[in-house]
Every structure is written in structure tokens, then in C-alpha cells.
Design a protein that fits this description.
The structure is a single chain. This protein is of the alpha/beta class. The protein is globular. Helix 9 links the parallel strand 7 and strand 8. The strands form three sheets. It has a seven-stranded mixed β-sheet, with helices on both faces. The chain has a four-stranded antiparallel β-sheet with strand order 10-11-14-13. Helix 3 runs antiparallel to helix 12 and helix 5 packs parallel to helix 6. It folds into two domains: 234 residues, Aspartate Aminotransferase, domain 2 (3-Layer(aba) Sandwich); 98 residues, Aspartate Aminotransferase, domain 1. It starts with a helix and ends with a helix. It binds pyridoxal-5'-phosphate (PLP).
Length: 420
């Protein structure tokens, strides 16, 4: 056959009716499968992000206009700044003066004075040469890890999913070490040295505060081990930023700034906004803004989010009030829960009330809802089997009475479920 006859035959074939082969997807079957494996999740709207809120009774329904308010003990808005008038005003002002959206990637026309000012403030707070903001904390971790292209990453076994995904996408060999264990890290590095063929680039990455266990990574020990092998250290301060003096996280609090090469965090938790940041040396930041694909190929952080984050950061640096209230509430709640006989893990503002069995955790959470307390159950695979828990997170804006009410509700629900 000639070329012409060949392509004619191909065209004819394409026009012939084909026996339908389904090459599509079956989301219903996949959902059913998740349902069967108890992995199905639902959205559940609230009417506002605050210590007191109305929650939709049915995930598919709307939030009632007038129903009773519930006390939220589950948000990452630890300082209660998401409902702070000063922060709301700063967001509105940036929408008016700069724009409701950035309109383009920062590398095109989406870079504004507002972004620069926030980055200067973050760098000052973190005591680094420079900082860069991304559109989410997730995008920051993925962008930084892929741009660094490490040969080997040493990663804590409980690191956040965005670190796990960043490691996967970076193509690095990922060595997972035991949770919060600097000796396990040292052993993993020892084993790697034995296998090393070439000069490799190594990165140790860890959360500072772990979101489900509420504990703190042994950062000093981790830095020591990393230094022995010449590795870089990257710390994710998502659950610590803004909660320590001068708006800092654990890295600053433990005076480790000079030993941590990459400080990362979110603007979305204590800073009550949206977005993520990375702080480090001038050259590192300049490189990342060129090479981190989630920065380069994504629209710049929206100016209202920039304004809100900057105001929250200012508040956490200049005013101790909400931080003092948060830690006071944390102490009361932790002591009260432990006093009632609950097993409470962690050392931070995150109080994991560990129940063990997943059904028990769900039942306890349901009973608490009847008492007006929202504290969802966290089950496998998010946490290891046998450690289902309620992740209780008090806020600075809970009153003394509300903390008391939460403790009474736990005591009552604990007794009716037989957990106490
Ligand atoms: C430790 C940690 N890192 C990163 C992120 C992602 O941050 P964001 O929610 O701003 O995308 C989270 C969010 O839950 C987190 O807990």
C-alpha cells in the first residue's frame, strides 16, 4: 500500500463503529470501595471559623441560620485570629488597595508590594536573610522538596502528607526514620554512608510540632546528627509558627536558626490566613523562586490572604495576649482531661485524647456533639491502628466557662461510653 492508501485506510477505520470499550472511570465503585474499607469522608460545613460556631447536622445539608452554636475544639486557628477584627480589616484593605486576587504568577505580573512586605516580616521574625510565600503550605513543601532535588531524604515517619508527597515527586531515595528519634536518624545515616557510591546531597526533613501526636521533634539532636554527616535540615513549622515569642516557632524558641537551612511553615493555622512560606538564605530563596514549580506555575498568593497573614504576624510579634490565653487554656484542658482519667498525649497546644479502638473514638466524638462539643475522631489510616483518638485543640478565644463545659462534657461522655 502507498502512504496515501495507508492513511485513507486508517481514516476509514476510525469512522467504523467500534465495539464500545469503557476506558473511563467508575467513581461510584471507588466510593463504594472506600465506604467498605471505612475510608469514606464527608464535608461538614460550619457557619463561621471561630471558637463558637453552628455546624450543619447533615453533611449534605446547609448550616442552620439559627440552630444552637457548638464549641469548636478542633481548629488549627489556635490563637482565634480568624475571627479577629484587626485581621479581617487588614484582609479587606488589601482587597481594596491591591486587588482581590494576584492575577498571575509572581514571576509575571502577580508580584506586589504587599507580598514583598509580608516576606520581609517573615524573614525578620525567622531571623533569616529572606522568605518567599506560596499559595499553600502543601504547595510550599512540594515545591521546595522537588526544587532541591536531594539524592537522599531522611524523613520522620509521622511527617505531614505534603512532605511525603514532596519526597515522592522529588524522585529522591527516601529513608524513613522512627518518629522523633535522633538516634534512629543517626543509624539510618550510618547505613546510608556504607552504601554511598558517589557524593550525594542529603536532606533531613521533619515537622517541628506533629499535628496528630502534638509532640515536638528533638531538633537539637537532629541538627547534631545532620551536621556530623554534612546534611541539610528542613523543618516544617506549620503547627508552631506564631505560638512562641516574637511570633516564632520551635526553631527560634530553641535558638536553632543558624543550624536549620530551610524553615518552612504555613500562614493558614495560627496566622489565620492562607498560604505557606519558606525562609532561609538569600541564595536559597532566589533559587527557589526560579525552580519551585508550585511557585513558578501558580498564581501569587491572593492579596487579602497576604494582608491577613501580615497583620496576624504583627499581632503575634507585638502582643502576648492571645498567646498567653492559648497556653492558659491548653494547661487547664490538659490537666482537666488527664485528671478525669483520659490518656492525653503530646506536649503542645494539640491534645490527642487517645482511646484506641476506632469505634470507641467515633462514639465518644458523637456523644460530645450531643453536649455541644466538636472534636472529631481521628482514625487509621491517618493514625496507626489501635491509637484512634480525638484531636482536641483549644483556642485562645475559648472562655474559662467554655473550657469547663468541655471538661464536663468529656467526663459525661467518657462515662456513658464506658471509656472512663
Ligand atoms: C505539618 C503540616 N505541613 C504542611 C501542611 C499544609 O499546609 P496548608 O494547609 O497551608 O496547605 C499542614 C496542614 O495540615 C501540616 O499540618
Amino acid at each position: 500500500m502507498t502512504d496515501d492508501a495507508d492513511s485513507l485506510a486508517a481514516r476509514e477505520r476510525r469512522r467504523e463503529p467500534r465495539r464500545a470499550t469503557d476506558r473511563g472511570f467508575d467513581p461510584a465503585a471507588r466510593l463504594a470501595d472506600r465506604e467498605q474499607r471505612d475510608l469514606r469522608r464527608d464535608l461538614q460545613p460550619v457557619d463561621r471559623v471561630a471558637a463558637r460556631t453552628r455546624v450543619a447536622p447533615d453533611p449534605r445539608g446547609a448550616v442552620p441560620d439559627d440552630g444552637e452554636q457548638q464549641l469548636l475544639f478542633a481548629a488549627n486557628d489556635y490563637l482565634g485570629l480568624a475571627s479577629d477584627e484587626r485581621v479581617a480589616q487588614a484582609a479587606a484593605e488589601k482587597a481594596h488597595t491591591t486587588g482581590s486576587g494576584s492575577g498571575a504568577s509572581r514571576l509575571l505580573t502577580g508580584d506586589t508590594d504587599a507580598h514583598r512586605a509580608l516576606e520581609r516580616d517573615i524573614a525578620n521574625a525567622k531571623k533569616t536573610e529572606r522568605a518567599l510565600v506560596f499559595s499553600s503550605g502543601y504547595a510550599t513543601n512540594v515545591g521546595v522538596l522537588t526544587a532541591l532535588e536531594p539524592d537522599v531524604v531522611f524523613s520522620d515517619e509521622l511527617n505531614h502528607a505534603s512532605i511525603v508527597d514532596g519526597c515522592r515527586l522529588s524522585g529522591a531515595e527516601t529513608v524513613v526514620y522512627d518518629h522523633a528519634d535522633a538516634d534512629a536518624l543517626a543509624k539510618a545515616m550510618d547505613r546510608q554512608v556504607d552504601r554511598e557510591t558517589d557524593e550525594e546531597s542529603w536532606l533531613v526533613v521533619t515537622d517541628s510540632v506533629f499535628s496528630m501526636d502534638g509532640d515536638i521533634a528533638p531538633l537539637e539532636g537532629i541538627c547534631e546528627e545532620a551536621e556530623r554527616y554534612g546534611a541539610w535540615v528542613m523543618v516544617d513549622e506549620a503547627h508552631a509558627t506564631g505560638l512562641y515569642e516574637n511570633g516564632e516557632g520551635i526553631v527560634g524558641h530553641e535558638e536553632l536558626t543558624d543550624r536549620v537551612h530551610v524553615q518552612m511553615g504555613t500562614l493558614s493555622k495560627a496566622l489565620a490566613s492562607q498560604g505557606g512560606y519558606v525562609a532561609g538564605s538569600e541564595k536559597l530563596i532566589e533559587y527557589l523562586l526560579n525552580a519551585a514549580r508550585s511557585f513558578v506555575f501558580s498564581t501569587g498568593l491572593a492579596p487579602p490572604a497576604v494582608g491577613a497573614a501580615r497583620e496576624s504576624l504583627r499581632i503575634t510579634r507585638e502582643d502576648d495576649t492571645c498567646r498567653t490565653q492559648l497556653w492558659r487554656n491548653v494547661k487547664r484542658l490538659r490537666e482537666g482531661l488527664a485528671g478525669s482519667g483520659f490518656e492525653v498525649w503530646g506536649k503542645t497546644q494539640i491534645l490527642p485524647v487517645v482511646v484506641g479502638d476506632r469505634t470507641d473514638a467515633e462514639t465518644l466524638s458523637d456523644r460530645l456533639r450531643e453536649h455541644g462539643i466538636v472534636a472529631p475522631a481521628i482514625r487509621p489510616p491517618t493514625v496507626p491502628e489501635g491509637t484512634s483518638r480525638l484531636r482536641v485543640a483549644p483556642m485562645a478565644t475559648h472562655t474559662e466557662d467554655e473550657i469547663r463545659h468541655c471538661l464536663d462534657a468529656f467526663e459525661a461522655a467518657g462515662r456513658t461510653t464506658g471509656i472512663l
